[in-house]
Amino acid sequence: MLPSVGRLQSPLSLPWALSAAVLLAWSDPHRRFKLLALLFGGVSGAVVLKGLHIAMRGLCNNPLEGVYLLGSLLYAFAKTVVQYMARGFKPILPQWTLRFELFRVFIRVGMELHGERVLGDESYAAIVREQSEWFGTFWGRRACRKAGKRYEPVHINGLEHIWLRSLTPRKPNTRRLVVLYAHGGGFAIMSPRLYIHFSNALCSFVEKELARQLGPEAANKVHVEIFLANYHKVPKHSYPTQPQDIVKVYEHLLYHENLDPSQVVLAGDSAGAGLIMSAMLRERRDNPQLLPLCAALVCPFVDLTGDERPSPNCILTQECCNAVLKAYHPEHDDQSKWGDASSVHCDLRNLPPVFLQTGGLDSIHQHAVRLMDKAKADGVTNWEYDLHETMAHVFPIFPAWFLPHADVAIEKVAAFIVRQVQPTLKTSGFSPAAVAA
């Protein structure tokens, strides 16, 4: 019996039917063969195969691998949707969404099949970076238009970096506040352009927190900018090139932008957060007077021990973590050569205040736990620890329509930054109270 028109118009009937059909077809070998023959047979099949190869060339070595990956993804997507419906149309965790679940499945399947290749082979990593630049530019332009910002590429140290600035020119007698952000991606993939969307959100939340903590008039006297820093990628370049790159761009901001260290916040996620820690340790050793105002670390990769506990709800697999270790620090098996690449094992005293944010379901959650424990053991009292129990790796970088809880995390980062900024405004001669009066 055919379903009624009213039933067909339900927004949930289509994904249910598609998911059930894919599961049914893929679970039976005979139907699976027919489905693949229909999709990939003849001239149309050649076109489909070529399109798949182009779209998935950052992961797959040939069209057949693309077919297998597509089939695996379709099956995993269908299974996820069916499970979602079986739970009464509720996500697997209360603060998740179906969109985020499907994205996790997409990344997880790709990493399980080809993660080591992407993170350990420059030819594949370069393709993923190129794709992330294209997507980030497209997505970032829309975010900038919505937020009233603009992005400006700048080349330093042979690499492209991105400035995110307001469309409104900076007024005289305003104090600049720059957040230097180092992106994640296993030291190998992703690009600053992919983070343009996220940097718009971060900038917006910092501006809102300035108004909330200082008052609207005083907040208008602070001009917030984001600098998306780039660094040379593995496997072509290994440690210590990457932390050296971050130090170079940080000092470029100080000397060429005429910024005081108290006007700069260092931040990053995953591998980028690890580089921020390494850069601060280097500045403390070489130029302690140049240490920044503070730092914010999101799901940091800061431990070369290599004993991660992969979470089934996270995009990171054990194989990926192993590939990152091998590519980033070829001598990671020798603890005496870890240096500041493994900041968990470094002296953490006399560093700026640090905001340490982590997800309880992150495969490298223990990195953050150990880093905070080490800071406490070293007698550090100006660090803050922010745990989100049901979140996975780098959850704050996702847009709110994708994962609403991301905004909760960004707001906490912004609040921390503004708390550190407020005392510097008084010592610089700018008094929020005077402006408000």
From TrEMBL:
Residue ranges of domain Alpha/beta hydrolase fold-3 in the record: 179-395
Any Pfam family: Abhydrolase_3
InterPro entries registered for this protein in UniProt: AB_hydrolase_3, AB_hydrolase_fold, GDXG_lipolytic_enzyme
UniProt keyword annotations, A-Z: Hydrolase
Single GO molecular function: hydrolase activity
The protein's name: Alpha/beta hydrolase fold-3 domain-containing protein
Organism annotation: Phytophthora fragariae
